[in-house]
């Protein structure tokens, strides 16, 4: 069993609702060749600095997340795509310690497969930003402002994708317009949504 990382301990200590469950997930993850780290405020288990799995807790469940889960075979049909816009990551969700204990052998198989995916160098083919729907409000702005179009096209594909999803999400046109207006200066500065 791999050693625990003291930097990660706070996550487990602060976790009230899912503490026994996430501690069990931790012990399963540490019973592999992965290294425990803290990334994005959650336990992340890596192989040679590549993320293989994370432990998350939510209001209704706790989960193991495989960043390249889409590449796993999922023979047991347990992997869940969080939202339609998540291209690569997949979760296994739990609502009780008993569930985790029952699934431990299966989880170990999935973790070993995720490790093999990482070792093999397999990469996820992400959709290109041009394959995402462009909100009409943003398309209009791009057509009206060549500098904005140039600045947007200069952004990394991930930053472009984040903006496109952010602009397309609201149901109301006025909310989409407000999001576009607010983001224009940031795009012109070459910054992403969260920069």
Question: Largest beta sheet: what is the strand line-up?
Answer: 1-2-3-4-5
How many individual domains?
A: 2
Uncertain runs? none
Tell me about the biggest sheet?
5 strands, antiparallel
What series of H and E elements makes up the topology? HHEEEEEHHHHH
- Secondary structure tally, helices: 7
Task: Give the C-alpha Rg.
Answer: 20 Å
Supply the helix-strand structural class: alpha+beta
CATH third-tier fold name of the largest domain:
Aspartate Aminotransferase, domain 1
Task: Kindly estimate the percentage of residues that lie in beta strands according to DSSP.
Answer: 5-15%
Please give the number of β-strands.
Answer: 5
Task: State the end-to-end CA separation.
Answer: 38 Å
Structure description:
By secondary structure, this protein is of the alpha+beta class. It folds into two domains: 115 residues, Aspartate Aminotransferase, domain 1 (Alpha-Beta Complex), CATH 3.90.1150.200; 60 residues, no CATH class. The chain contains seven helices and five strands, in the order H-H-E-E-E-E-E-H-H-H-H-H. The chain has a five-stranded antiparallel sheet with strand order 1-2-3-4-5, with helices on one face. A hairpin with a 2-residue loop joins strand 1 and strand 2.
């Amino acid at each position: 069993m791999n050693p625990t990382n003291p930097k990660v301990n706070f996550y487990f200590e602060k976790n009230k609702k899912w503490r026994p469950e996430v501690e069990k997930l931790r012990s399963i993850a540490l019973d592999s060749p992965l290294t425990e780290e803290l990334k994005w405020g959650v336990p992340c288990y890596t192989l040679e600095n590549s993320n293989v799995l994370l432990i998350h807790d939510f209001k209704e469940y706790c989960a193991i997340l495989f960043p390249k889960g889409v590449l796993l075979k999922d023979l047991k049909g347990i992997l869940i795509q969080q939202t339609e816009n998540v291209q690569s990551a997949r979760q296994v969700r739990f609502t009780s310690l008993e569930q985790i204990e029952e699934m431990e052998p299966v989880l170990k198989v999935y973790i070993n497969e995720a490790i093999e995916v990482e070792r093999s160098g397999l990469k996820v083919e992400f959709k290109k930003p041009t394959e995402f729907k462009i909100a009409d409000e943003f398309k209009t702005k791009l057509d009206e402002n060549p500098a904005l179009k140039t600045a947007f096209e200069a952004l990394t594909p991930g930053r472009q994708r984040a903006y496109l999803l952010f602009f397309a999400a609201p149901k109301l046109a006025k909310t989409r317009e407000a999001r576009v207006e607010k983001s224009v200066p940031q795009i012109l500065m070459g910054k992403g949504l969260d920069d």
